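Batch manifest, entry 17 of 40.
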Amino acid sequence: MSDPYYNIVKLIERLHRHFLDVLRAELHRLEVDDINAVQALLLYNIGEDEVVIRDLKDRGYYHGSNVSYNIKKLTEFNYLQQERSTHDRRSIRLKLTDKGLRLRDAVRELQTHLASQITGSQDLQKELDGAATAMLRVERIWTDFIRYGRN
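Output type: structure tokens
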């Protein structure tokens, strides 16, 4: 395995864990103690639109039982509301409640704050653009492997 590839895989895992730590710290600062960082990230990813649970899975954000458990908890704590689709009774639409929207806005503000620390440096911005391009290529390779197997 090449060192750059191995390093990027390790870094992706580490960055995800660190990002969840950042969200945990922000939840603590906001005195939100009824949900965890993964659930806050789920709210952020749902955003303002109504979504179907399947959309979250198809976008690659979450896996089956994990998303179902988190949606159940977010609904219990009044961050989400669920509604059965009128066209397909098996499909459940999700929408953030006012409480969920407030927390999503707080996470968005945190993201804006963190991004502002990066955009001040053109060199760093250029490096991030290159890193994003490389990570998109890795994602494409992984997606092709999942869909088509080894070539």
